[in-house]
Amino acid sequence: LYRMRQENVQAVVMEVSAHAIDMHRIDGIMFDVGCYTNLSQDHLDYFFTMDLYFEAKRSFFDSRYIRRAAVNVDDERAGRILAGLSMPCLRYGISTNADLYARDIEISENGVTFRLCVSGQGEYPVCLKMTGIFNVYNALTAASAAVSLGVDMQHIIRGLESVKAVPGRAEVLETDTPYKVLLDYSHSPEALENILTAVREFARGRVIALFGCGGDRDHGKRPMMGEIGGRLADYCILTSDNPRNEDPQEIINDMLAG
User: Fold this and answer.
1) pLDDT of residue 84
2) DSSP at 66
3) How many CA atoms lie less than 13 Å away from 23 in the CB half-sphere?
């Protein structure tokens, strides 16, 4: 951040992890707007319970850290975030009443189109170059942060539509084959379910999922990811992610249990 300031960088967007909050890495930094997207099982090797994991995230939404908030009200824990807020908040979502929301969503293998609706401002057509309902939520998060900061809507729409696929995130690989190959960094149950659900929206043939789980991390999510793969894919190939100090076969056995 110091080097960015020296180079006259005007804006910084960053992920604030639960680890960073719990380890006080962000102490002394004031954010103009903080966004809550969602919470799914991960990092229980560090936090042990989902409640402790959530509390770490919730503690970010405090006037010590942020001046404004944007909250995904479709998430089941959003109410607990909203209940403790002491700063202005913009609520966004798809299926719940919100200040900013998406409707008329159309998903294809090439991207997503939808109408971005902003309370008191109107509706705006958006054409994303990235696919999947989770990318609609990502777009709503970005738009909510920008609206909170007073950015003009036309600038917001142009910004959303200019973003191309992020490497490793629902990335369509050039394979010159009669089938599509998508690469996605799905390291949690929700992430795996999101990408497989997205692919199901446009797949015309079988869906084959190749995935693994990391070693020396939350063991509880392994059977959950196995179950999701078995339910949403036609065929699964279980492989090694980064086994670290564990036996790769034991990791796969944990996944097979699901």
Assistant:
1) 81
2) B
3) 8
C-beta of residue 22 within 8 angstroms of C-beta of residue 54: no
Alpha-carbon span 60 to 64, nearest angstrom: 8
Please work out, in degrees rounded to the nearest 5, the angle formed at the alpha carbon of residue 199 by the alpha carbons of 115 and 44: 95
- If we measure between CA atoms, which residue out of 67, 190, 68, 89 comes closest to residue 137? 190
On the question of pLDDT at 18 being above 80, the answer is: yes
Tens-digit pLDDT profile for residues 237-246: 999 889 999 9
Q: What is the mean pLDDT of residues 15-32?
A: 95
Per-residue pLDDT tens digits for 198-253: 899 888 899 999 999 999 988 999 999 999 999 999 999 999 889 999 999 999 99
- Tokens describing residue 124: 């705006």
CA separation for the pair 115, 217 (Å, rounded): 39
CB 224 within 8 A of CB 196: no
Which residues have C-beta within 8 Å of that of residue 150, sequence separation ≥ 6?
none
pTM score, two decimals? Answer: 0.81
Helix (H, G, I), strand (E, B) or coil at 197: helix
Report the C-alpha gap between 195 and 219 in whole angstroms: 21
